[in-house]
Amino acid sequence: MAYDFITLERADGVATLTLNRPKAANSLDIPLARELMHAAIACDDDPEIRTVVLTGAGPMFCAGGDLRSFADAGTAISSRLKELTVYLHAAISRLTRMDAPVIAAVNGVAAGAGFSLAIAADLTIASDAASFVMAYTNAGLVPDGSSTFFLPRRIGDRRTRELMLTNRKLTAAEALDWGLVNQVVPAAELLPTATKLAATLAAGPTRSYGAVKALLNETFEHGLEAQMEREARAIAGASVTADGQEGIKAFLEKRKPQFTGR
Questions:
Q1: Does the active-site annotation cover 38?
Q2: If I label 179, which of 8, 77, 158, 169 is the partner at 20 to 30 A Cα–Cα?
Q3: Catalytic residue (choose from 44, 66, 99, 144)
């Protein structure tokens, strides 16, 4: 599929997905959200993709929703937002549910839906020039893009309320201190760092990673015994995969495992 507002590059098991509306601060309108959904589906369906890196073109990661396009919709604004969130939420669902780990490489401002995309990733690396702000209620709107699901799980209810109600802006260093990101690096080192991590993960047991993601994404939805049952089924299932067999064999033979993602 050809894309106009994103780029999707594949190399050595790593897909690099770049939001590509730099003149509009990579803000999300319907065409970009639709392409993001299609790209997420393509990554989910390609067994050769074993890690995804999500980043933005230009100096900003993503400024959130394209408020100009919302205003241009006039009285159809509600319908437009419902359509946009269908695409955005489907993209996030596919990236979250796929086996391959997703790394957000936040190269600049992550506001609104950009913030939501950054925290929905499995791992987040930020440039030291990055910043994070919810921004939704500043425009009289309400958070979307999975942020009301993931943000309390990342940093707790109190801090989530502070960010969503006051629109406090966090620097990259503050985001690291709060546990919103895993690592902060100089801007010039952002993509090399993310790519190196992606390469490491792409050489790992992809189906095991998918099981880990599934367990963690729903860990607050179950009681102790139910969650342990899910763990038991997940580890038993992993043990009979090719990578599970290889991992056990390599451990016993005291060598590095050669995982294939199967």
A1: no
A2: 8
A3: 144
